[in-house]
Design goal:
Belongs to the class I-like SAM-binding methyltransferase superfamily. Cx-SAM synthase family. This protein is α/β, with parallel strands linked by helices. It is 43% helix and 22% strand.
Length: 243
């Protein structure tokens, strides 16, 4: 499968507006996420490793905010337990349509259902693994605790939540350093100053980041007892929470 290069912001845009996961973004998303999110490939592959450890027979795995299905496919490749199924959810129809095609092109025993909906509307139960891979940051802050509470209630004992996010930091010196290093990462991957600036402006009202401490507090409030950061690269990372 050929990957189309992300050039969405390579020329000046008169009215930027707010970020949406529309058809244009879906078309270039594989290239965009690889060149924009430090450690993304590592997180995806390690989600599969965690699935091998935590997915239980006769249970459901939820990939909430599945985009094109990278995490779903990683899980599917590593799950051989009987009577498991994966439910992948995204509220972007263009993402869901492409996700379905990707899922269909990789045959495996574990069935996958791809749903176009707001993750807040999903009735979850009998879960052994839930993935929020760079998803929570696009929810309004007042809805984040409610979603985490629902996930905790849906998880079976020893079930795991994987929460990947872009982080902010209370220490302004550290926050600025990691912010600038992320931009250096994007420059090294071929993005121009114009592309970096225009994308940042579109995201600033849509992607609202939290500190690691805030994430851990929410997870603790939801009921999780075992919580820690298991991966971090610059201001991007992933947290595990085990019931």
């Amino acid at each position: 499968m050929s990957i189309k290069k992300d050039q969405l912001f390579s020329t000046p845009i008169d009215k930027l507006g707010d970020w949406t996961f529309d058809e244009k973004v879906a078309e270039v998303f594989p290239d965009m996420v690889q060149r924009s999110v430090p450690g993304y490939s590592n997180i995806i592959s390690m989600i599969g490793m965690l699935a091998e450890r935590f997915v239980q027979p006769n249970s459901t795995i939820y990939d909430l905010g599945c985009s094109l299905g990278a995490a779903t496919l990683s899980i599917r490749r590593n799950v051989n337990n009987k009577n498991c199924r994966i439910i992948a959810v995204d509220n972007s129809q263009p993402m869901v349509e492409r996700c379905k095609r990707h899922i269909e092109s990789y045959k495996a025993n574990t069935p996958v259902e791809v749903i176009c909906d707001d993750i807040s509307n999903i009735d979850m139960q009998n879960a052994s693994m839930v993935v929020l891979n760079f998803t929570l940051q696009f929810l309004t802050p007042e809805n984040r605790q409610q979603v985490l509470n629902k996930i905790y209630q849906a998880l079976n004992p020893n079930g795991i939540l994987i929460l990947s996010e872009k982080f902010s930091f209370n220490d302004s010196t550290v926050d600025e350093l990691l912010f600038n290093m992320h931009h250096d990462f994007k420059r090294a991957n071929g993005y121009s100053e114009l592309e970096i600036s225009q994308k940042r402006n579109m995201l600033e009202n849509v992607m609202l980041t939290d500190t690691i401490e805030t994430h851990k507090k929410r997870l603790s409030d939801a009921g999780f007892k075992h919580i820690d950061t298991w991966f971090q690269c610059f201001n991007f990372g992933s947290i595990i929470a085990i019931k």
